[in-house]
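Students often ask why we bother encoding 3D structure as a string. The short answer is that it lets us treat folding as translation between two languages. Here is a chain of 205 residues written in the first language.
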Amino acid sequence: MKKRLLLLLISLTLVSCVTPAATKKPDTGTVAETVKTKEAVIPSTANEESSLNYILGYQAEMEGRWAEALKYYDEASKLAPASPYLKVQIGRILLRTGKVKTATEKIEEVINAYPDYLPALRLLGQLYNGQKKTVDAIRIYEKIAKIDPNDVEAQLLLGVLYASEKKYSESTEVLEKLLKNRPDNLMALYYLGSVYFDMKDMENA
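And here it is in the second language, the structure alphabet:
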């Protein structure tokens, strides 16, 4: 009985992870509103066996047993093949263990099936950025910012990546827009000043 209750709780947890929320709480700042995102709702495919493998994988991950975590997540994904959440978990473990190419291919598969799935987009942006695939990373972060206007990290990274490609106009536009909504964001202020400095615009720097 206890095992079934545990599995039920796990299943509910997994369902909540598999089906993305329609809204995202804003980061602490001056804008205190919840913005509805355009992210697609993905149906749950969780079942008891996949949920059990998921929780075993999660426990292994928390304890740093990456090979075991990958094994359990992979088994859970096979039992619930339509779950993008489980594939993202696999991608995260692959990245953590240095298998960057395999992780990238895995997450690209998720995006092909679920183009607006934010957890996969965020991980893919990280993967592209880490591999210096700046143009691809920009494309991903542009999409994230469009789907979730409250994603401050995506906007910061987008501003920095634009600047690295010497797209200063796009960079300043993104960072100034962010600061308009989050005037207390020191990182955005710092990056904007750095961009103006690179542009030799000492008045704004």
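Translate back mentally: The domain at 44-120 is CATH 1.25.40.10 (Serine Threonine Protein Phosphatase 5, Tetratricopeptide repeat). Keep this in mind for the problem set.
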